[in-house]
C-alpha cells in the first residue's frame, strides 16, 4: 500500500458524471486521438519500409510489452521487470514449436498451432512468476521479477537442448497464407498495429470494468479490499495472467519481426529497457508506454547520428537514454504524459477561459500536483 | 538451539544428518563407490572451497546492500555499479603503485565518497519513496555503466595478486591416498583463503559493531523507529551518511576482491547486483547474518552446481530463491 503512494499513481475519483463519461468509448470526443488513429492507419502511404518496420512496428511491439508492465504497475501497483522475459519466452516457444533454421530443435508445427501454444505457455509462465511475485510487495516485487528475468536469461544462455545456448534460434518462419506474405512490410505493420490497438483497448476497457476497478482498489488499499471480501491475491494474480498474455502477444510479434531470438533479446538490460519505456512514457495511462516506446526507438535509431553531428562519440547512446530517464524520473513522476499534463495545466490556468468540466479536471489535477510534491 | 530442536525435531534431525554427511564428505577418504558416483574428491573439495570463498565475496557486496536497505529503506540498485567502480579504481591503483593493499584503501575511500554523494544528492531528496529510488538508481546504474565503459573500454581486467599471496597452500584435507599409502592433500590458492578470512573478519566486526557498540545501537534503533531516534537528539542524517559510506565502501572493497579472484568487465555490475539481490532475498533484507547465510548458500549452490549440473547451475540458485520465497517470504533470518 505504501507503494501506491510512492508510485504517485493518481487515484481517479469515480463520481457519477465521470463514470458515465468513462462508460463511453475512450477518447471518442478527442480529435487528437482520431488524428493519431488516422495517421497510424494510413502510415504505409507516408512512410517507407524502414520507417514502417524499424520505427513504427518496433515502437508498437515494445509499446505493447511496456503496456503489460503499465497495466501491472499503474492499475495493480506491482512493478514487474519480467514482462520482457515473458515476451521472450513466448518468442522462444514460437521458434521451438514452429519452423526455424534449427531443425533439430524446432518441432515444425504450423504457425496457427505454434502461436496459441506459445501464448498459452508464456501466459502460464508469467502467471507462475506472478504468483511468486504477489507474495511480496513494493521493492521486493521489483527484485524478484528482476531475478526471474535474470535467471531466464542465464538459463537460455546455458541450455542447448531447447534454447540453443547463446546463439539462439535463427531463421524463424513467419506466416504465409491466403497468398499473402504476412511478414512483408505493409501486412506486418497492420498485424502489429491491430494487436497493439487490441491490447490498448483491452487494457483501457479492463481498467473501467469491475475487475479493473477492484484491482485499483487493491492497489490503493489492500486491507480495505480484503475486508470488503475481495480476494486480494487472486486479483493480483489475475492481473498477471492478463499482463502475461499481452506480453506474450508482443513476444510473438517480436520473433516474427526479427525472425530470430537469442538470449541477448531477453537480457537484464533489455528487461530494464521495458521499465524505462513505461516510466518515460508514463505508467498511469495506457497510451504512456507507446509514447515512451516511440521516444526510445527514435533515440536508439538516431542518437548515434545525432551525437556524431554534435561532435560526440556516437556510442554514448545509452548515456543519453540514462540521463534522459534520470531527468524524467527526477522532475516528473508521471513520465512524458505527466510533463505534458502539467504544461497544459499551466497553460490553462494562464488562460481564464476554461469550461466547467475542464476547470474541475484541472482542480483534480492540481490536487494531484500537490500530491506529487 | 535446544529450543529449535524441541520445536522442530524433524528439521533438527535433517540438519544434523546433513552436517554429518557434509563433514564425512570433507574429511574422509572417499571409497571407490563414492568416487564412481560423485567424481573425484579433489573436484568436490575445490568446488566446495570455491563456493565458500565466492560466498565471502558475495557477502562483501550484499552486506553493504543490505546494511543500506536495513537502516534507511534505501533501495540502491546502483550497488553493482559501485562494485565495478571499486574494482576499476583498485585496478588503476594497483597498476600505478603496485600495491595491492593500497588499492583496497583507495577503492574503499572513493566508493564511499560516491556513496555519500548518492545519499546526499539523491536519496535524501526522496526519502520513503521506494519506487522513485528504484527508478533513479536504475537510471544512475545505466549512466555509470556507460561512463565506465567509456573510461575503461570493454576489456577484461584482472588485478595482480601480490607476490606474497601467489601460489597454493596445502590444506590438511586428504583428497586421495596414493597406491603407496601416502596421503595426497588438497592444494588451494592462498589468496582466496586470505580474502575469505578477511571477509569473515569484516562480517564479524560489522556484527559486533552493530550489536555491541553505541553507534550500532543507534543504527539498530534507526532501523526500528527513526522518528523517535531523531527526537532523542541523534543526528540521524549524519548516521545515514556514515552507514551509506560504509555500505558503498564495502561494495568498492568487494570490487577489488572480485577483480583479484575473477575479472572486471562491463556486465559484472549487473551480475553482482543480481547476486546481492538473490543473497538478500534468501537471507532476509536488512540482516547481516542473513546476508552471510544467503551468500554462503548461493556461493555453494553456484559452484557445486557448475561442477555437477553445469547446465542448470543458475537455475539451482534461482530454485533456492523460489523455495525460500515459498516457505519464508521474508527471508531465512529476518525477524519480521
Mean of the pLDDT scores of chain A?
77
Helix percent of chain B reads: over 70%
The residue-averaged pLDDT of chain B reads: 82
The biggest beta sheet of chain A is recorded as:
2 strands, antiparallel
The parts of chain A where pLDDT drops under 50 for at least 5 residues are 1-24, 354-373
The H-and-E topology of chain B, N to C, reads as HHHHHHHEEHHHHHHH
Q: Tell me roughly what share of residues is in helical segments of chain A.
A: over 70%
H/E series of chain A: HHHHHHHHEEHHHHHHHHH
Strand content of chain B: 5-15%
Oligomer: heterodimer
Task: Estimate what percentage of residues of chain A fall within beta strands.
Answer: under 5%
How is the largest sheet of chain A built, in terms of strand order?
A: 1-2
Order the strands across the largest sheet of chain B as they lie in space.
Answer: 1-2
Shape of chain B: globular
Summary, kept brief:
With 373 residues, chain A is an all-alpha fold. Chain A has helices at residues 2-6, 16-23, 31-41, 43-46, 49-76, 83-97, 111-133, 139-158, 185-208, 210-220, 222-227, 232-258, 268-281, 287-309, 317-331, 335-350, 356-372, and strands at 176-177, 180-181.
Amino acid at each position: 500500500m505504501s507503494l501506491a503512494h510512492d508510485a504517485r499513481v493518481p487515484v481517479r475519483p469515480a463520481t457519477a458524471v465521470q463514470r458515465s463519461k468513462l462508460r463511453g468509448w475512450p477518447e471518442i470526443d478527442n480529435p487528437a486521438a482520431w488524428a493519431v488513429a488516422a495517421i497510424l492507419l494510413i502510415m504505409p502511404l507516408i512512410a517507407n519500409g524502414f520507417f514502417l518496420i524499424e520505427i513504427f512496428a518496433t515502437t508498437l511491439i515494445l509499446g505493447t510489452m511496456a503496456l503489460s508492465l503499465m497495466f501491472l504497475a499503474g492499475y495493480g501497483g506491482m512493478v514487474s521487470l519480467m514482462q520482457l522475459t515473458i515476451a521472450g519466452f513466448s518468442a522462444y516457444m514460437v521458434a521451438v514449436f514452429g519452423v526455424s533454421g534449427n531443425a533439430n530443435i524446432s518441432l515444425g508445427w504450423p504457425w496457427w498451432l505454434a502461436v496459441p501454444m506459445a501464448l498459452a505457455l508464456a501466459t502460464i509462465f508469467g502467471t507462475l512468476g506472478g504468483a511468486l511475485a504477489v507474495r511480496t510487495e513494493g521493492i521486493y516485487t521489483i527484485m524478484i521479477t528482476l531475478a526471474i528475468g535474470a535467471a531466464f536469461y542465464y538459463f537460455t544462455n546455458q541450455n542447448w537442448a531447447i534454447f540453443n545456448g547463446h546463439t539462439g534460434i535463427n531463421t524463424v518462419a513467419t506466416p504465409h497464407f491466403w497468398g499473402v506474405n504476412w511478414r512483408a512490410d505493409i501486412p506486418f505493420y497492420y498485424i502489429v498495429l491491430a494487436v497493439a490497438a487490441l491490447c490498448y483497448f483491452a487494457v483501457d476497457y479492463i481498467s473501467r470494468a469491475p475487475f479493473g476497478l477492484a484491482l485499483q482498489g487493491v492497489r490503493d488499499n489492500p486491507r480495505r479490499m480484503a475486508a470488503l471480501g475481495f480476494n486480494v491475491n487472486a486479483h493480483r494474480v489475475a492481473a498477471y495472467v492478463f499482463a502475461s498474455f499481452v506480453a506474450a502477444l508482443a513476444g510473438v510479434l517480436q520473433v516474427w519481426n526479427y525472425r530470430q531470438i537469442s538470449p541477448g533479446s531477453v537480457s537484464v538490460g533489455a528487461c530494464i529497457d521495458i521499465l524505462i519505456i513505461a516510466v518515460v512514457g508514463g505508467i498511469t495511462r495506457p497510451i504512456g508506454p507507446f509514447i515512451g516506446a516511440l521516444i526510445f526507438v527514435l533515440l536508439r535509431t538516431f542518437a548515434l547520428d545525432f551525437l556524431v553531428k554534435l561532435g560526440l562519440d556516437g556510442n554514448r547512446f545509452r548515456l543519453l537514454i540514462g540521463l534522459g530517464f534520470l531527468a524524467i524520473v527526477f522532475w516528473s513522476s508521471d513520465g512524458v504524459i505527466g510533463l505534458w499534463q502539467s504544461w497544459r495545466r499551466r497553460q490553462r490556468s494562464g488562460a481564464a477561459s476554461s469550461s466547467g468540466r475542464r476547470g474541475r479536471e484541472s482542480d483534480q489535477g492540481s490536487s494531484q500536483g500537490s500530491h506529487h510534491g | 538451539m535446544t529450543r529449535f530442536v524441541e520445536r522442530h525435531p524433524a528439521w533438527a534431525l535433517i540438519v544434523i544428518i546433513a552436517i554429518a554427511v557434509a563433514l564425512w564428505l570433507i574429511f574422509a577418504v572417499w571409497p571407490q563407490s563414492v568416487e564412481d558416483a560423485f567424481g573425484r574428491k579433489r573436484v568436490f573439495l575445490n568446488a566446495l572451497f570455491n563456493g565458500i570463498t565466492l560466498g565471502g565475496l558475495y557477502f562483501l557486496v550484499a552486506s553493504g546492500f543490505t546494511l543500506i536497505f536495513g537502516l534507511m529503506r534505501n533501495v540502491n540498485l546502483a550497488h553493482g555499479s559501485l562494485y565495478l567502480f571499486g574494482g576499476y579504481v583498485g585496478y588503476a591503483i594497483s597498476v600505478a603503485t603496485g600495491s595491492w593493499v593500497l588499492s583496497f584503501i583507495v577503492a574503499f575511500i572513493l566508493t564511499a565518497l560516491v556513496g555519500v554523494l548518492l545519499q546526499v544528492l539523491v536519496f535524501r531528496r526522496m526519502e520513503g519513496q521506494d519506487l522513485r529510488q528504484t527508478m533513479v538508481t536504475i537510471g544512475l546504474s545505466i549512466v555509470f555503466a556507460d561512463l565506465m565503459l567509456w573510461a575503461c573500454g570493454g576489456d577484461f581486467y584482472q588485478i595482480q595478486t601480490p607476490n606474497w599471496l601467489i601460489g597454493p597452500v596445502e590444506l590438511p584435507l586428504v583428497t586421495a591416498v596414493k597406491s603407496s599409502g601416502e596421503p595426497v592433500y588438497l592444494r588451494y590458492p592462498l589468496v582466496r583463503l586470505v580474502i575469505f578470512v578477511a571477509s569473515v573478519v569484516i562480517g564479524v566486526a560489522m556484527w559486533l559493531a552493530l550489536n555491541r557498540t553505541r553507534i550500532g545501537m543507534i543504527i539498530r534503533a534507526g532501523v526500528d523507529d527513526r522518528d523517535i531516534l531523531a527526537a532523542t537528539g541523534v543526528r540521524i542524517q549524519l548516521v545515514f551518511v556514515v552507514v551509506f559510506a560504509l555500505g558503498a565502501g564495502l561494495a568498492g572493497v568487494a570490487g577489488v576482491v572480485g577483480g583479484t579472484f575473477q575479472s572486471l568487465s562491463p556486465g559484472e555490475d549487473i551480475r553482482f547486483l543480481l547476486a546481492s539481490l538473490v543473497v538478500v532475498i534468501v537471507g532476509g533484507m536488512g540482516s547481516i547474518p542473513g546476508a552471510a547465510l544467503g551468500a554462503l548458500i548461493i556461493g555453494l549452490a553456484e559452484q557445486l552446481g557448475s561442477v555437477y549440473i553445469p547446465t542448470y547451475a543458475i537455475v539451482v540458485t534461482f530454485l533456492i530463491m523460489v523455495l525460500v520465497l515459498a516457505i519464508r517470504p521474508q527471508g531465512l533470518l529476518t525477524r519480521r
